[in-house]
């Protein structure tokens, strides 16, 4: 089985809905083309999100990342990298940072 290693980061308070852990090392089966969409919905939401029934809407809205969450692929805005259709590469770093803060 062929796998790629991906680092996933949750910053700006998002770690609170991901078991208070800011960073995960994820192994992804890439025997087929694996996109950021696959990573989000098949790994992050299913395996990393704590209490999905309560926290899903904090992270996901309308089948994409919720507005107010900055998504970076290797420190580049995901809008420059095909967003959900980005094809994951070995050693990618995917970062999600909440820009919404109470106060």
From TrEMBL:
Its main location: cytoplasm. The modification 1-thioglycine is found at residue 103. It comes from the Eukaryota. C-terminal thiocarboxylation occurs in 2 steps, it is first acyl-adenylated (-COAMP) via the hesA/moeB/thiF part of UBA4, then thiocarboxylated (-COSH) via the rhodanese domain of UBA4. Keywords: Cytoplasm, Isopeptide bond, tRNA processing, Ubl conjugation pathway. One of its GO terms (biological process) is cellular response to oxidative stress. One of its GO terms (cellular component) is cytosol. CDD domains: Ubl_Urm1. It is found in: Cytoplasm. Pfam families: Urm1. Gene3D superfamilies: 3.10.20.30. GO terms for molecular function: protein homodimerization activity; protein tag activity; sulfur carrier activity. There is a cross-link at residue 103 (Glycyl lysine isopeptide (Gly-Lys) (interchain with K-? in acceptor proteins)). Pathway: tRNA modification; 5-methoxycarbonylmethyl-2-thiouridine-tRNA biosynthesis. InterPro entries: Beta-grasp_dom_sf, Mopterin_synth/thiamin_S_b, Urm1. PANTHER family: RURM1 PROTEIN. Belongs to the URM1 family. Acts as a sulfur carrier required for 2-thiolation of mcm(5)S(2)U at tRNA wobble positions of cytosolic tRNA(Lys), tRNA(Glu) and tRNA(Gln). Serves as sulfur donor in tRNA 2-thiolation reaction by being thiocarboxylated (-COSH) at its C-terminus by the MOCS3 homolog UBA4. The sulfur is then transferred to tRNA to form 2-thiolation of mcm(5)S(2)U. Prior mcm(5) tRNA modification by the elongator complex is required for 2-thiolation. Also acts as a ubiquitin-like protein (UBL) that is covalently conjugated via an isopeptide bond to lysine residues of target proteins such as AHP1. This is Ubiquitin-related modifier 1. The gene is URM1.
């Amino acid at each position: 089985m062929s796998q790629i290693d991906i680092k996933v980061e949750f910053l700006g308070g998002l770690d609170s809905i991901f078991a208070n852990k800011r960073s995960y090392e994820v192994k992804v089966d890439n025997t087929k083309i694996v996109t950021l969409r696959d990573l989000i919905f098949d790994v992050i939401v299913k395996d990393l999100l704590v209490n999905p029934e309560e926290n899903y809407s904090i992270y996901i809205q309308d089948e994409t990342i919720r507005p107010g969450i900055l998504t970076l692929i290797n420190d580049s805005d995901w809008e420059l990298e095909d967003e959900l259709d980005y094809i994951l590469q070995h050693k990618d770093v995917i970062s999600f940072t909440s820009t919404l803060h109470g106060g």
